[in-house]
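Teaching note: in complex prediction, the entire set of molecules is handled at once rather than each chain in isolation. The prompt given to students was simply: 'Predict the structure of this complex.' The entities are:
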Amino acid sequence: MGRYVIRRLLQMIPVFFGATLLIFLMVNVMGDPIAGLCGDRQCDPATATQLRKEFGLDKPLWQQYVTYMGNVFTGDFGTAFNGQEVTELMASAFPVTIRLTIVAILFEIVIGIALGVVTGLRRGRPVDTGVLLATLVVISVPTFVTGLLLQLLLGVEWGWISPSVSPEAPFDELIVPGLVLASVSLAYVTRLTRTSIAENRRADYVRTAVAKGLPRHRVITRHLLRNSLIPVVTFIGTDIGALMGGAIVTERIFNIHGVGFQLYQGILRQNTQTVVGFVTVLVLVFLVANLLVDLLYAVLDPRIRYA
Amino acid sequence: MPEPMPREPHLSGGGRAPEDGAIAATGMGGTMDLATAEGETLEKTPGGPDGTGPSEKPRSLWSDAWRDLRRNPVFIISALIILFLLFISLWPGVIATQNPLKCDLAKAQEGSQPGHPFGFNGQGCDVYTRTVYGARVSVTVGVCATLGVAILGSVLGGLAGFFGGAGDAVLSRITDIFFAIPVVLGGLVLLSVVTSSTVWPVIGFMVLLGWPQISRIARGSVITTKQNDYVQAARALGASNSRMMLRHITPNAIAPVIVVATIALGTYISLEATLSYLGVGLKPPTVSWGIDISSASQYIRTAPHALLWPAGALAVTVLAFIMLGDAVRDALDPKLR
Amino acid sequence: MRGATHARWAACAVAVALAATACGDDGGGDSGGGDGSGIVSSSWGDPQNPLEPANTNEVQGGKVLDMLFRGLKRYDAKTGKANDMLAEKIETSDSQNFTVTVKSGWKFSNGEAVDAKSFVDAWNYGASLKNNQKNAYFFGYIDGYDKTHPEDGSKQTADTLSGLKVTGPNTFTVKLNQKFSTFPDTLGYAAFSPLPQSFFDDHAGWLSKPVGNGPYTIDSYAKGSVMKMREWVDYPGEDKAQNGGVDLKVYTDNNTAYTDLMAGNLDLVDDVPASQLKNAKSDLGDRYINTPAGIIQTLAFPFYDKAWDKAGMEKVRTGLSRAIDREQITETIFQKTRTPASDWTSPVLGEAGGFKEGLCGDACEYDPDEAKKLIEEGGGLPGGQVKISYNADTGSHKEWVDAVCNSVNNALDNDKACVGNPIGTFADFRNQITQSKMSGPFRAGWQMDYPLIQNFLQPLYYTNASSNDGKWTNAEFDKLVNEANAETDQAKAVDLFQQAEEVLRDDMGAIPLWYQNGSAGYSERVSNVALNQFSVPVYNEIKVS
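The expected output is the structure of the full assembly:
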């Protein structure tokens, strides 16, 4: 187990370099970012050259990458075009996004799994059909619309929440944005749980447990649910990326200055320093998340062991 | 265990069943079901005349599945919807006689009126006509991207989960890198160089960025499935890898893949619109549900009907495929026989 | 119909939601009563560049500079006239050599006096290549600019402009490299602001908390969330702040800001999102303002592409112009926050300033039949199809480009005659323009730097001018502009500029689409809200009740 974890941690090193190099190349392929800095007019060529030199864009690509990585190891992630340090930007964006992601994942776990268990045990009943319809609505109506309508209803008409999240973004202000962000994933989690439950409730060990006369809730939680969770856990593990880096719409609607928003801005302005910096941190998050998922497999299904 | 075990993750082997370790039963009847006989209208009763008990001559699992499927009303309904969608994708002109690109701004956002049952969108185009014509692109994108992602992802993920070891490690780390690529960045980089105005680059892009997720799901599912007693038994009996994979693992491990893929189908149809919105998706004047949904979102306060119809069409499509997925999954589940 | 019922239900639910707010009262905030100490909260976006006056070329940074600085001239918020602010007088006898006298008694908020040197140092800083100032070209008319800012990228040979000389504590002279009679009127632009010595002594310190000579000072600035501007009590000018200060709150999206305004959490949104324009009137009543601003939208053509430049193409270009139903588009898509354009300037100039309604004449009148005829006469659309390029990442241009294309398609009776061509990022869009890679018309927008007809024509259509994106060139036009610049009599100069504009019209060098308005909404807490001609709120006049 310990050796397995260490091996996995060592594997992070090539992934780290591979991912940063890939993102670095991709942002550079997009072309020259300087033209976008002068508004609807042409940058005067002299200033443009000067700016390119200042951001190191006049050097060959490999040299830019080496310089950048060298700086990263001294903790310097560079500066954005508006003169703000990327580390400063990350320090303000990541805590907010992590809180938002936690809220969203809690929704996925609590509501998604609960609905999945209920619908899995009551296939074809009205509750199952109702949840299916809700799923369809969530998939076909854009997050933008759900977010906006919730904002108007809860924020403006009823005044339950503030339509925009304050810069400090405490947990209680993130409940509605977290729900909106989690909505599509909720559909996945619910249906994954439902299918697993429906499948496993006919499994031999469940029959045996029922035959032994174990109480119903114990059968569900200890035997049925535990063995049904592996696909769900896998899914949530893969979803962390979408939640943390891809919450562009939700963050925009609710005025959350998080990772998704900053990353999107960085990409549109072709700001290599910002994009690579943020993605580097995200890669590390995925690596850890996927390691945790693999370790959870062994917890959920004791037949699986890691050497 | 005698045979070489994959190093990572290492199997304990020994066929220890979770918790109570009951030995496989043939699973006839539903007498011990937890939610016994709670009106499972969507499910067929197992153990019909086509019963495939172990004593009978073994028949192909896949042909059994097909026999089950044909009798399942859920399958029939979903197949009819899908056939209808295919029909209007091929010949939209049969049920919509107007031109989807003919728009009169003076009628923008107007509601239903004679000849225009669904009203007009923000540009004054007929919503009904555009919803019908949008099917072609949206269904093509949704179905092809889903198929591509599901096949590529489940094959790679399934193999990684089955064999484990170095191959699994490499593949898993590659998926880690793919997860890290922001969709917006990938789209702007990979699709902005494409000049083709067909749907294929967009579908290719979705497959490229979508497969890691299915791959993870399939991998996890295979890792659990191969612990099951019947797989261990087959292995002990000396079954070949390919036989185990096809006959034992795939039917039992495919359910989560089907679930994720059918829902993802809807999200790919929306993703097409996101890419178009970013200016890297399908080139104008493409008509698709995704594009119409995303532009109608803007007018949600003044003209919700413009959103309702294309979104409704998307919902029906997703519903059909979810039902289809359910039916296929049931048909493949040996425990139901 | 079941579906229609649903639609109606949804519409009603939303309407109820909004009616409720319209009647609801405003939220908290620092309510200071009517004594002028209340704080206004206003929507904002993070500036894209460091807040140096000569480095700020977008409206968000511009808002701060407008509160923080006062220059030699200041444009009247209503008429756009360039009035003396810190200038005692600006004299010239030949339209090329100017003597500037700065009023005495002005101070920066850190106590330093504002004198001739404050201006000359600031302008030298802005013009010097090594300082990377994006607005450096504003100093391009001053003698010696080619030494401090060599265009070809060669090494700069001077740090200061030879055309600027301090001649006394409060006087300095400006020598231009060409005759430019209306030069003094350009001096209200933020790039010409004075800078205190502390800017040069502790540059990093100044940047983190800029110090100016305007009615507000910066109290605190948390990047990415809020900038708190407070009234400078000892401000020596006439236009003292009527409120206690302004909190500029950064929003990720103007739609969110608008919702916050409706919920009573925000006092002022100075950019009503396009999707809410239709509701703004009913949501806000008379707290919605929609006033002309010095912005014009046009379609430029790639004149470097032979297909668009050959003889006869002026008919095709004019035909396209006549195929666009400006009236309908400005009404439906823009909800009258744009006005159909009939010349290449802006109504904010006023007739005396050079705006001439209808100068474009028939060429801008919608007439589908005539449009079709003209395009056929001119040899048809190049390649049978026009693609209108725009950047997809900002500004929601898709809506109007689609509408323009539908209008053209309807006029030509061909649903593939015109399609939009979105380009992913603004930088990519600009790159394709500057590298002359456009293959069809593309969106062009111009926000005036100063309210002069010269500013609407010369930078955009003069041969090789800095913003002549289509590379249109016409010797007659250039000649008329040169003559107009040398003319000291304003009426005669305007007349010459208008003649130049007619040359532009006859060749249809760019299709004028519409004049853009500034639109804003405000809460019941505040009053006396107006936008100036740059669509920036006149913050110092806002009253908080």
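Point out the following to students. The radius of gyration of chain C is 24 Å. The interface with chain B takes residues 1, 3-4, 6-7, 10-11, 14, 18, 274-276, 278-279, 325, 328-329, 332-333, 391-393, 396, 398-399, 402-403, 405-407, 409-410, 415-416, 419-425, 428 of chain C (CB under 8 Å).
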